[in-house]
Amino acid sequence: MATVSIPTILRTHTGGAKTVEAKGSTVAEIIADLDANHSGIADRLVKDGKLHRFVNIYVDDEDVRFAGGLDAPVKETSTVTILPAVAGG
Amino acid sequence: MLRIRADLVDEIVAHARREHPNEACGIIAGPEGSDRPERFLPMRNAAADPDYPGLPNTRIDPETGEKIEELRFGDTFFIFDSKEWLAVHREMTAREEEPVVIYHSHTQPYSEAYPSAIDVESALEPNAHYVIIGTKDPVRHELRSYRILDGVVTEEEIDVVESYMFAHTGADDVPDRD
Ligand SMILES: [Zn+2]
């Protein structure tokens, strides 16, 4: 199981937990597993099959936007960090 | 209300002036749950990097009502550099801090220091004070603060103090260590 770090805005889905465990060998599978246990979380991360433009997901130190997107590989020992992108105009 | 030390306001203003006409952005971190901005963390605006591909954006021309497709760069858009943001986030987590203030500047002659549609869409920190500094006037700046929650913008007062120690706060307030 990978460890997933949950940002403040999504902790309503995890009962306040800052980190949770999730199963999967890609980011997409991790998100599906998260959503199975914490309903509604996938809609906050993915829009039209793509990572939401103001959400960052990192596998260990890599921003998946630059490293395979939702297909980026995740290992059992990986830490997946979800962060709001912090952006604006 | 946002209560903030004067030296931190000075840092925001100096950062925004330095980056103008690009937008400056950053965080002031404070102890989790304290609502007290303490540690100034200017961030790199990745949209101002020469290799930034541009943010695809659609807006309505206020005069003609026509849809305009455009790419936004650092003078009309900001986004934290994702690597720097991960490092800063980890450091804040280790220190049990959170982003108390998230600030950015508006630099364009037509823009007010009020949250834009993109600012509202991307505001994802329910506990943060969203501070906008307007730098279109070369001398006088405009500094305003907002809460942004589920797409609803609420402006709030800014109380600039010399030190949190002497500011009037609740009975359970912990004085500043300095
Ligand atoms: Zn803005």
Could you explain how this protein is built, in words?
The complex is a heterodimer of chains A (89) and B (178). Chain A has 89 residues and is an alpha+beta fold. In chain A, 18% of the residues lie in helices and 30% in strands. Chain A has 2 helices and 8 strands; from the N terminus they run E-E-H-H-E-E-E-E-E-E. Chain A has helices at residues 27-37, 41-45, and strands at 2-5, 19-22, 46-47, 50-51, 55-59, 62-63, 79-84, 87-88. In chain A, the strands form 2 sheets. In chain A, strands 2-1-7-5-6 form a 5-stranded mixed sheet, with helices on one face. Chain B is 19% helix and 35% strand. Chain B is of the alpha+beta class and 178 residues long. In chain B, the strands form 3 sheets. Chain B has a 6-stranded mixed sheet. A two-stranded parallel ribbon of chain B has the order 1-11. The model of chain B has no long low-confidence stretch (mean pLDDT 93). Chain B has one domain (2-46, 75-168): Cytidine Deaminase, domain 2 (3-Layer(aba) Sandwich), CATH 3.40.140. Chains A and B meet through strand 5, strand 7 and strand 8 of A and strand 6, helix 2, strand 7 and helix 3 of B. The complex binds zinc ion. Zinc ion (ZN) is lined by residues 104, 106, 115-116, 119, 132 of chain B. Chain B: This is Proteasome lid subunit RPN8/RPN11, contains Jab1/MPN metalloenzyme (JAMM) motif. Chain B: Residues 2-152 form the MPN domain. Chain B: It comes from Pseudonocardia thermophila. Chain B: Keywords: Hydrolase, Metal-binding, Metalloprotease, Protease, Proteasome, Zinc. Chain B: InterPro entries: JAB_dom_prok, JAMM/MPN+_dom, MPN, VirAsm_ModProt. Chain A: This is Molybdopterin synthase subunit MoaD.
